[in-house]
Amino acid sequence: MDKFALDYRFLEKEINKPKYFKYNEVKDRLIRVAFDVVRFMDCNDDIDGLWQIQKTDDGEVIVAKYEDSPQNIDKQASDSSWHVIPDKANTSINIFYKNSPIKRIASIELGIDSNYLPYLCKDTEVKLASDSSFREKLLRELPLEQQTELLNQFPELAQ
What we know:
Number of helices: 7
Order of helices and strands: HEHEEEEHEEEHHHH
Helix content: 25-40%
Distance between the termini: 48 Å
Number of domains: 1
Structural class: alpha+beta
Strand order of the largest sheet: 1-5-4-3-2
Shape: globular
Radius of gyration: 19 Å
């Protein structure tokens, strides 16, 4: 190799390496969005966004989820047919698809304080708009009869 040539192969490995933190070190700063997805309470710095809890040989870690650029996610959420809103008592969230109710989840069931429901609603709406595996997990939690009715009414959800 020419001594003035640059080898960028090591950069590709570093760029594609997921950013992560040990779960035990940051668990008191996290809000559970849904399932194994969390976000930081103090999201004013460069670590805002969605994170996923994963098990490793070294214990549990949270790994940054950068599947789409933030601009794409925001655009998908604004164009989305998914809406997630808290109830009037601020004790649960309601999930809608094209204004049809899909599921109601109590904040106690999620294990989060009701003060964080607005953050949860926003993040869940973005996640539903941008992540097909997340939508599939939600739909699989529904009773079979409701799943069938929903897929008959909205066949695009089967994709």
